[in-house]
Amino acid sequence: MTFLSIENKYKIILASQSPRRQNLLKELKLNFEIKIKEIEEVYPPELKKEEIPVYLAELKALAFNNDLQNNELVITADTIVWVNNSVLGKPTSYQNAFSMLETLSNNKHTVYTGVCLKTKNTAKTFWASTDVYFRKLEKQEIEYYLEHYKPYDKAGSYGIQEWIGYIGIEKIEGSYFNVMGLPIQKLYDELKKFNT
Amino acid sequence: MTFLSIENKYKIILASQSPRRQNLLKELKLNFEIKIKEIEEVYPPELKKEEIPVYLAELKALAFNNDLQNNELVITADTIVWVNNSVLGKPTSYQNAFSMLETLSNNKHTVYTGVCLKTKNTAKTFWASTDVYFRKLEKQEIEYYLEHYKPYDKAGSYGIQEWIGYIGIEKIEGSYFNVMGLPIQKLYDELKKFNT
Hints:
The structure is a homodimer.
Chain A: H1 6-9, E1 11-14, H2 19-26, E2 32-34, H3 51-62, E3 72-83, E4 86-88, H4 94-104, E5 107-118, E6 123-134, H5 139-149, H6 163-168, E7 169-174, H7 176-180, H8 184-193
Parallel strand pairs in A: 1-2, 1-3
Antiparallel strand pairs in A: 3-4, 3-5, 5-6, 6-7
């Protein structure tokens, strides 16, 4: 049972390989399938903050344009970490990941997620942001985390639901699940409202 | 492996039946055992906000007073929900739980957890608070949640990590894990500092 009557109207598709997003969407007790279209995640360099994941979510949705059936609704999403006025994506190496975590240490950053709901004839985009405050991380703590958790698939090189999140994050302001990659409460509201 | 050298000095005991607290403590990669002493959770009526869980955490620790060995450290904790200038504990009935969730709906509340670390000769108490903002909950959403999740062991009648948390909570300010019953980042810091 779900409160989302949209399920009667559309077949829901989640276009994300992230197991975190897949698990969060399951919590809405919604039937959905996963379908991925590979795209190059390139965005105009002048974009800032939420503009980046909003752009990329829409780009990911655009890739479905020609394939959507009348009864299909695709959900795409993109998440970035914004700190010291620039963006952190997924790390490319151990050194890169180490340096990202040093940047986050003793600092505040903001996690932005853009989400796009797309059908054949319409689309709705929204986003959410959460401020995250790390305490000062010790060098050994960063090393331990990188060796044991290998966060190479994660924007900003960390998962809030992993050891480093438990021991290092003092507080957040906003949605916890947004930091995991999907602002699930907003998504639920948008799906409830989605009517065309 | 852990960064908590305290493990070499003390046998850690967690005095809590809450599976959520037990799982959170496991995330610190710490060896511990669980030992419960039943006490009556009664506190002076003039206490407010954090004073209540601090008092109850200390009361729970006191129950171990005569039994602790020199090499034992016990962790006790208590969590309350504070809303509209009064306290919500665990619900006593379906009606009571329903009315608690109606109170939380479209409202801000604060979750306070008190934690006590106690050895034979010393003790350290600390607390954390997190503000939680529920959007307006529909009557049917509350009914669905109570019927399917039966949150009768939870202060305030909800678990943030359950369906109602996913769909109903707009944002939090503070530690997410504190809302689950244990401010795990603060606890890690206090265990690291604990030296007597």
